[in-house]
Design a protein that fits this description.
By secondary structure, the protein is mainly beta. Helices cover about 10% and strands about 55% of the residues. The chain contains seven helices and 21 strands. The strands form two sheets. Strands 2-3-4-8-9-10-11-14-15-17-18-19-20-21 form a 14-stranded antiparallel barrel. The longest helix is centred in the N-terminal third of the chain and has 13 residues, at about 20-30. It is elongated and about 100 Å long. Mean pLDDT is about 90; it is low at about 1-20.
């Protein structure tokens, strides 16, 4: 069963019913994607930097751009990041914001001239850079009244899919599920599938990803530029997801339809008191992932004419080693009615897991072109990334049979994308430049709509002959649909609940630099 056009938050249906294997699949994409970091100048240009050089961003962008430096340079870039989300669920809308300050980029380039003439190698330059490649800080919340189904149906589907009898025993123990009369059908919810239920989803994400790079670039005849870098990446990612559901349990007649011999409908059995009562349930999930990895990049820029640049980059996968810790909890309180202050009974079940694995992100291929005019330039980039090629490998196993399952799941869920970037710069005065840029990001999901784009504006000024200051504002928009849980629609005769999320992220970036 697969629902088209909806992005599922698989982390929300509690990890009690999932193996560490399934939990890691969604993280594979998260840790493979990166924001376009760099200085305020290149961010103002929409980060269309594959064919441009002479900026500290070249250390982690196209290292061939280091060959354009005619003197040494140092800079630091500060960033204020604000993530705003609007979640709409069953006609109800809620907005959440989360902002933070930080250092987005820092680097130094050392210039080593080689030749005072016009032929041969002109220079070899070395750069060392630090870059914040991803800010995970975000808060997405939505809530509404769902009259169609319950998250407990998703739990029973997971039991059927994964065969986790321990999970089934735990949910039976807290009176949430019962067996069908035909045991081959598995379990059904004691909570009402139809009827109004208040549902609240609140997902808080924190953490950052950082890369430190060592790069070199050379200039041959002021026509051909070549470079490379090696990067060392580390990250911390924390995800706290809570899902609450408030409603009523079934009455005896509804339970009898699925199991006429259930002890829930026996008035002399203790389970009878859990029918036709009010319940409050919390699904609480926490996961912390820490990883480190290494990658490399090679790049080249060619000038077929004085006013044209053509650039290309090849970026290797990042080979990560990741440690992942998971806590998962389901708790339920039962009340005689919705006016009761204290529950007459409650139940809870917990799960923890430690898992270490290797993640191999996709290769990336970039092409760019820049056209120079009397007082400005236009630059455009295209980048190809195949997210279907993400790989996970279980540490401690060699040629594990899970490897093929992971590979196939990534191929089924994700696809190759083309990311497009376009930017322009105009010299307003001899000391002040204006910049503008736009980005379009391809949809990595095969079976979900996920629209992503951004726009940027920037200004740059020369403070003195050696000092410079750049400012940029980048606004990113991501519209998508999400389901807090997934049920077998055909079996339950009900559609998955869907929330519309409008995610907007605004970055204010300031770079201060000096040439020496």
């Amino acid at each position: 069963m697969r629902l088209k056009k909806i992005l599922f938050t698989s982390l929300l249906v509690s990890g009690i019913g999932f193996s560490a294997y399934s939990q890691s699949l969604s993280n594979g994409l998260i840790f493979s994607q990166e924001n376009n970091g760099g200085t305020a100048r290149f961010k103002g240009l929409g980060n269309a930097k594959t064919a441009l050089g002479g900026d500290i961003s070249s250390i982690t962008g196209n290292p061939a751009g280091l060959g354009f430096f005619g003197q040494s340079d140092i800079s630091i870039t500060f960033n204020y990041d604000n993530a705003a989300n609007k979640g709409s669920y069953f006609g109800n809308s809620i907005s959440k914001n989360k902002g933070r300050f930080g250092v987005d980029h820092a680097g130094v380039v050392f210039h080593f001239p080689k030749n005072e003439g016009y032929h041969g190698w002109q220079n070899f330059n070395i750069g060392i850079g630090y870059e914040n490649t991803n800010r995970f800080s975000n808060n997405v919340r939505y809530e509404g009244i769902n009259p169609n189904n319950t998250i407990v149906s998703a739990y029973t589907d997971d039991i059927a899919q994964f065969g986790d009898q321990a999970f089934a025993s735990n949910l039976s123990g807290v009176k949430l599920i019962e067996r069908f009369a035909d045991a081959d059908q598995g379990y059904f919810p004691i909570t009402n599938e139809s009827g109004n239920k208040d549902q609240i989803s609140d997902i808080l994400t924190t953490g950052n990803s950082f890369r430190t790079s060592l790069a070199f670039g050379g200039n041959y005849n002021n026509v051909f530029y070549i470079g490379g870098n090696i990067g060392f990446t580390s990250f911390i990612h924390e995800n706290s997801a809570q899902f609450s559901e408030y409603g009523w349990t079934k009455d005896a007649a509804a339970v009898a339809v699925d199991n006429p011999s259930s002890n829930f409908i026996d008035p002399t059995h203790p389970n009878y008191e859990f029918l036709d009562v009010n319940y409050e349930m919390l699904d609480d999930y926490y996961q912390r992932s820490e990883g480190s990895g290494v990658d490399f990049k090679i790049g080249a820029i060619y000038k077929p004419a004085v006013d044209w640049n053509i650039g290309a980059t090849i970026t290797s996968p990042t080979w990560y080693t990741i440690d992942q810790y998971t806590e998962s909890y389901i708790g339920v309180d039962y009340y005689d009615d919705d006016n009761a202050q204290d529950p007459f009974d409650y139940g809870e079940t917990e799960f923890t897991d430690d898992f270490s694995y290797r993640l191999i992100t996709p290769w990336k291929f970039g092409l760019g072109v820049s056209k120079f005019f009397g007082r400005g330039l236009v630059s455009a980039d295209a980048e190809y990334v195949n997210y279907a090629s993400i790989k996970i490998r279980d540490i401690g196993r060699v040629n594990s049979s899970d490897d093929a399952l992971w590979d196939q799941d990534f191929k089924d869920a994700y696809q190759g994308v083309v990311n497009l970037r376009l930017g322009g710069e105009y010299l307003i005065t001899n000391a002040i430049s204006g910049r503008v840029g736009i980005n379009y990001f391809g949809n990595p999901y095969k079976n979900a709509d996920n629209t992503q784009y951004s726009g940027s504006l920037g200004l740059g000024t020369k403070l003195t002959n050696t000092l410079y200051l750049d400012l940029a504002v980048v606004h990113f928009v991501n519209d998508y649909k999400v389901s807090p849980y997934v049920i077998n629609e055909e079996f339950w005769g009900s559609a998955n609940p869907v929330a519309d999320i409008k995610h907007q992220r605004t970055n204010v970036v300031l770079t201060l630099g000096a040439k020496f």
